[in-house]
Design goal:
Blueprint lengths: L5 H4 L4 E6 L3 H9 L5 E5 L2 E6 L2 E4 L7 H11 L3 E5 L12 H18 L4 E5 L6 H13 L3 E7 L14 H9 L3 E4 L15 H19 L2 H4 L5 E3 H4 L2 H13 L12 H5 L3 E3 L5 H11 L4 E2 L9 H9 L5 H16 L2
Parallel strand pairs: 1-5, 5-6, 6-7, 7-8, 8-9, 9-10, 10-11
Antiparallel strand pairs: 2-3, 3-4
Helix pairs in contact: 4-5
Length: 332
């Protein structure tokens, strides 16, 4: 093998998108009679969220397997977060679900401080409930940021009480990672099973576009916000959005600047599987706005490593994307 190949020059990899499921949360889901819940079908655990049925991957539960996969891929450290269903789907038990999951993430980070840190999830029944759990979670060992779903039981992050999160996150310098949930377009995408491949990307793009047009990102210019999957589809459509707002005067009455200026303040992870997507994100936002992600266990980390390694980068640029930017962003 060429000694100058990227695989031989990268010293460390920090994965900012890696998911795990708390055993207590799994037990809670299995005990529930109504969705969101987990049932067994032909011996396989199946998660049901508002009609969307997906298998519970064994790797979502087994920490030893995650560590083995990380070692195999040369991943030094990972940001752990819970996939959907988010706490907001559990009504009066939302705060309990958030606390259960955040305590689990903290316990893993505390037990493996050189391998993991956590991104807490929050309940959104009210502003006070949200801020109370935010305070608690960020006081726990190893919690370095907040995971915010692209829609919160059908509402978007620019709506209250979610919107109140951004002022507090900006004030405290706390990173917020936007992550897709069951997409609002789910019913339109059931044919051909497109909810995960397209729906989730559309969901984060809609959420991020709303955050731009609502003025959230102009109001909070120092917000540390990550949009995964190299920004969904929004970076590719930003020229059209600019024209609609600036030339046709559509949707821009709450903002003072072109939408692309706000989008360039957002960070992106590299979960895409194709080097051209990463190259475009690099050209659009710059190397300093990109961070490596794997989306483990839904995706084999090597798939996204190969995509990133296919992009023409200097060694210094490659190391920034693989670890340097994440160290600065999350204060590692």
């Amino acid at each position: 093998m060429n000694p100058d190949h990227p695989k031989n020059t990268v010293r460390e990899r920090i994965d900012i998108q890696s998911h795990i499921l708390s055993p207590d949360f799994l037990e809670y889901l299995e005990a529930r009679k109504d969705p969101p819940h987990v049932i067994k079908k032909d011996g396989v655990r199946m998660l049901i969220v508002n009609g969307w049925v997906r298998p519970v991957l064994p790797k979502m539960i087994d920490l030893s397997v995650k560590l083995a996969d990380m070692d195999r891929a040369g991943i030094t450290m990972a940001a752990l977060s819970m996939s959907d269903p988010g706490p907001e789907l559990f009504g009066p038990e939302a705060a309990m679900v958030a606390r259960m999951n955040n305590e689990h993430l903290s316990s893993l980070a505390e037990a493996h401080p050189k391998r993991f840190f956590g991104l807490a999830s929050l309940p959104f029944g009210s502003k006070d409930e949200m801020l109370k759990e935010m305070d608690h979670a960020l006081s726990r060992p190893g919690i370095k940021g907040i995971l915010l779903f692209s829609n919160i039981n059908g509402k978007f992050p620019d709506e209250e009480p979610m919107r109140s999160l951004f002022a507090e996150a900006e004030r405290r310098g706390i990173p917020v990672l936007l992550h897709p949930a069951r997409p609002v377009t789910y019913e339109l995408l059931k044919d051909y099973d497109m909810a995960a491949s397209l729906g989730m990307m559309f969901d984060t793009s809609i959420a991020l576009c709303r955050m731009i047009l609502s003025g959230v990102l102009e109001e909070h210019p120092n917000l540390k916000l990550v949009c995964p999957h190299v920004g969904g589809v929004l970076p590719y459509l930003i020229g059209r959005l600019d024209y609609q707002v600036l030339a046709l005067k559509r949707g821009g009455d709450r903002i003072k600047h072109a939408p692309h200026e706000s989008l360039k303040r957002v960070w992106f992870d590299t979960v895409t599987g194709i080097g051209l997507g990463i190259q475009y994100a690099k050209d659009f936002a710059g190397v300093d706005k990109l961070m490596f992600g794997s989306d483990h266990p839904w995706i084999d980390p090597q798939y996204n490593i190969d995509a990133l390694d296919s992009v023409a980068l200097t060694e210094a640029e490659r190391q920034r994307i693989y670890s340097g930017n994440a160290k600065e962003f999350f204060g590692l």
